[in-house]
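#help-structures
NK: newbie question, is this the right format to request a structure? protein is ROK family protein
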Amino acid sequence: MTQTRTTRLERGRGALGPALELVHTGRAPTRAVLTAELGVTRATAGAVAAELEALGLITVDARPAAAGSQGRPSHRLSVAPGGPVVLAAQIHADGFRAALVGLGGRMVATAPGCMTVPADPSHIIDAVVEAGAGLLRETGRRCLGAGLAVPSAVAEPDGTALNPLHLSWPAGAPVRRLFAEALAKAGVPGPGEGPATGVTGNDVNLAALAEHRHGAGRGARHLLCVATGHRGVGGALVLDGRLHSGSSGLALEVGHLTVNPAGLPCHCGSRGCLDVETDPLAFLTAAGRTPGPEVSLLQQARDLLRTEYADPAVRAAAELIVDRLGLGLAGLVNILNPDRIILGGLHRALLDADPERLRAVVADRSLWGRSGSVPILPCTLDFNSLIGAAEAAWQPVLDDPLTVLG
C-alpha cells in the first residue's frame, strides 16, 4: 500500500463501515454515488472502496458505468459474489431452516428441516446449526458470524426466549447460550480463532430489519411491520435504520393488542388479542374449515384464500379478519406515526386479496388516516426472518470491517 493511499485510508477509516452498508443495501451502486453519500473526496472514496475490495467484501468493476449528461463515468460497486457469508437459522412451529447468506441479503445455500419441535430447545437448535455447518462444508465459504430467529420475544441482555407461546419450550429458555454452544459443538468457525459468534432475535423483528434494508421497507424512516407466522401475530418497528427493541428487547408485542374485547382468550391472559383474532387458525376457524395436519396452518390459510376466495364463507371470514387487523393497525398508527406499514404471512395474503378494505379501515380509525394515509404494502422478501437473522450476524462487520476481519 502506497503512503498516499495509506494516508487517504486513515482519513477514511471511519467511513469503511458506512461505505460497506451503502453497497450492502444497494444505495451506492457506483463510486461516484459512494463519494456523494459519504461526503468525502473522490480519492478518499477510492481508497475506502479499494480497502473493502482487499478485504474480500466488495468488487470494484474496472469498467466504469456509463456517464450521464454531465460528469465522469464512475466505477461500479457490488458485493463480492464469492465473498464471505454468515450462517442464518430460523426455528418455527413446524421445524427449521438454515442458510448461508452473503452481503446484499443474497442467499447462497439453504437447507430446510421438518420436525416436531421438542420441549428441550437445545435439540432443534443443535439440528439447525448442524444443517448450517453442513452447508459450510459443502460450499467451502468463509463464515463471519451466525444469527438465529425464533418465534418468541427475546429478552436482553440475557438472550432468553421469554414467551415461546406456540412452542412447548419453557419460558425463559436460554436460546442465545444454547445457540453459542451448538455453534461450538458443530465447529462453525468465526473470522478469527474459535467458533462463530451467535446472535439471536425475534423472527418478526428480524423480518422487519431485512425488509427495511432489502425489501418493501427500503427508504422508510419509521417502518412498522406486522406479520403472522404459523401461529400468532408479531410486530416490529425500525427507526432510522435500527430496530426499536425497547429497554430489554420486548418492544412491539403487537399481537397482544385487544381488537375484540369479547373475543377468544389469549395465551397472555387477556381476550380478543390480534394474536388469536387474526392469525391463520382464526381465519380457518371463521371460514368453517377444520385445519389438517399435512401442512402448516399458514400454508392452509394462504391456500384457502387463493383457491376459494369466491366462496361466501371464505370471503366473509377474510373480511372479518381484515376488519380486526385494521383496528389494530389504526391504533398503532395513532401511537407510532410510522411512514410505512408492511405486512407479512397471512396478513400479506389478506392485503393482496382486498387491499382497499384494509386501507379504508385503517384510514377510518386512525387520527391522521384521512389527511395523509400511511402506505400499507406487502412484504416482498422470501424467508425474510432468515435474511434478518443474517443481517443481525452481519452487523458487527457493517459497523467495523477492519476490527472483525483483522
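mod (FA): yep, format's fine, and the C-alpha cells are attached above. The first helix runs from residue 3 to 12.
NK: thank you!
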